[in-house]
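User: quick one, fold this
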Amino acid sequence: MALVSSITRPLQHLHSLDALRGVAALTVVFWHWQHFFWTSDAPPAGFRVESQPLFSVFFLFYRNGTRAVDLFFLLSGFIFFWIYAGKITEGTVSAGRFFMLRFSRLYPLHLVTLLLVAAGQYAYAAANGKFFVYPANDAYHFVLNLLLIPSIGLERGGLSFNSPIWSVSVEVVLYTSFYIYCRLLRPRVLPMTVLSLLGLTVLYALYSPIGRGVGAFFLGGLVHMAFTRILASPGAGKIARLLAIVTVLAWLATVGVSFSDALGGLAPKASKALALFPILVLFPLTVLSLALVESLKGGFSGRLPRFFGDISYSSYLWHFPLQLLFAGIAHAAGIDVSIFRSAWVLLAFFAILLVISRASYLWLEMPAQRALRGGPRRVSAKAVQA
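Assistant:
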């Protein structure tokens, strides 16, 4: 018997989650804009987040953009339990096939950006006497990056090369854990809850990247279970509307609290609560509401959601190489870093990033996937979404 019936999963693709993933990727770019002002591997003394361009508009991203990675992990959990859990449990997707799908999706772009950043960092260091932002660009860490394991606890000198790939290395651990879990157990609320809590507490204390990943990923699986059960219930429409309202209110509250924090700072306990709220409440509500509303009402398909979904991975991996290029050009031309406080520079950077990301998706990622997955056949939308 199928793990999830066709009644509870009528759509083959959730465009709203595509768009959400794309926005999350661009949110990380805002978070990393501070790189332009770093003098080593940390912000300089006296650095003010508020000094960055268009801060009054994008303050939520500048101050809390790192949380977008937790949203990535949660989205991965939701999508993987949606697409693969039943097939793995029933034995219709082999380990080899599953990992080839993941390898073909992730590795080609990773390899290209790794090589470009390695060359760029050594060129930057030759001109400046130091690397740009991330210091651990030696042979040992290059091998870790080449094996796609730069952030699973083996690193020795901090972040390295195209550092945003750290979250993808965590995802590799998550995919392995997910496959083993699905082979041994069917998705159940209790074990998935235990795994999520272990990730957010014990594993987080031992090694935070893995803890963040495990906690959010299996929480995403729980959100998918809630989604299928609500969708199959007689009152699905009413529940979806109620959750959508609650989600909007939660986002308004988050923006309001973050704005207050930006103005005057919050007490330590309030700041800690603000850090946990997105992971435990806001992101699960958002993913669940979007999936329900799209499944029941539609209206999210179109070029724009597909565009953001298509460029999510490429924009995430290309933004640091592009930063490295911008910083290198500015230094070579004798331009002060204050230029990166310009709104026009920010907008130009994003415009170039979007063009590069789209080209990368069309001319690098998709052809590589087709080649590695066995020829010219079309890669399914669901596989790409995963």
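User: anything notable?
Assistant: The CA atoms of residues 92 and 170 lie 25 Å apart.
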